[in-house]
Amino acid sequence: MGGKPAGNGESRNTWITPINYREVAVVFGPQFVQRQGLDIAKLEGLFMAPLTCRQNALFTRWLSGTLTRLSALTDPISRDALTQQLLDDCLFILDNACVCLDRSSLQKRSEERRLMARIGEWAADAPDETANLLELAQIAGVPLRQLQQGFKTYTGISPAQWLRLRRLNGARRELLSTTDTTVAEVAMNWSFWHLGRFSNSYRALFQELPSETLKRSS
After folding, report:
1. Which of 20, 58, 59, 213 could form a disulfide with 175 if both were Cys (CB 3.0 to 4.6 A apart)?
2. How many domains does the chain have?
3. Does 192 fall in a domain?
4. Does residue 23 form part of some domain?
């Protein structure tokens, strides 16, 4: 989940993913939009439908291969042609994966977006604070059921899973930032009361034990 710009102009983000996680974005510039005759106002009611596992695998291989070829090209004409193909193909995927919402559904989606924005602001402003489900619902200003639906729509995981991932990331930050501590102390600071389960969950997310992280920071 993203954060917001800090006072010093740098971007603050609260990630709930492993450290080797990467995001790739394809941006449609205004000139491309104009050439395609797209009406931006009509895109307001669209949202991307999740790709199936098979579609996701095919899309990942296609995008990876295209970007690899694009990075290897040195000829400007060939690069421009492949860039145009990339944009055209992404537009085709967008056109086939989007779903048009009616007014009621669009309003609900906007409310869910604002809900998640409030959670994101809290996470960025208070990275070291913990919260339970009821407290998180209060932060978002919505009932617990609405909180759960918003998380399901925008993250694909439950708020309980998100809170657990956030605590694991908080523990990792603490392990990396100090040497005058122990794994047990850090685990308890982040409300992990069973050290063995904490270590297993930590290793599953970050591919190393918390003791190994602490050793690297010394």
Report:
1. 213
2. 2
3. yes
4. no
136 neighbors 119 (Cβ within 8 angstroms): yes
Distance CA 89, CA 8 (A): 38
d(CA 161, CA 205): 12
Residue with tokens 């439950």: 158
Q: What phi, psi does 122 have (nearest 5°)? A: -65, -45
Question: Is there a domain that residue 12 lies in?
Answer: no
Nearest to residue 37, comparing CAs of 95, 102, 103, 106?
Answer: 95
107-148 per-position pLDDT tens digit: 777 788 888 889 888 888 887 788 889 999 999 999 999 999
Q: 100: helix, coil or strand?
A: strand
Contact 196, 159 (CB under 8 A): no
pLDDT (tens digit per residue) in 24-81: 666 777 777 777 777 666 565 555 555 565 666 777 788 888 888 888 888 888 888 8
- The span from the CA of 206 to the CA of 213, in Å, is 9
Can you give the pTM of this predicted structure?
A: 0.57
CA pair distance 174, 170, nearest whole angstrom: 6
d(CA 126, CA 131): 11
Structure tokens at 132: 């339970």
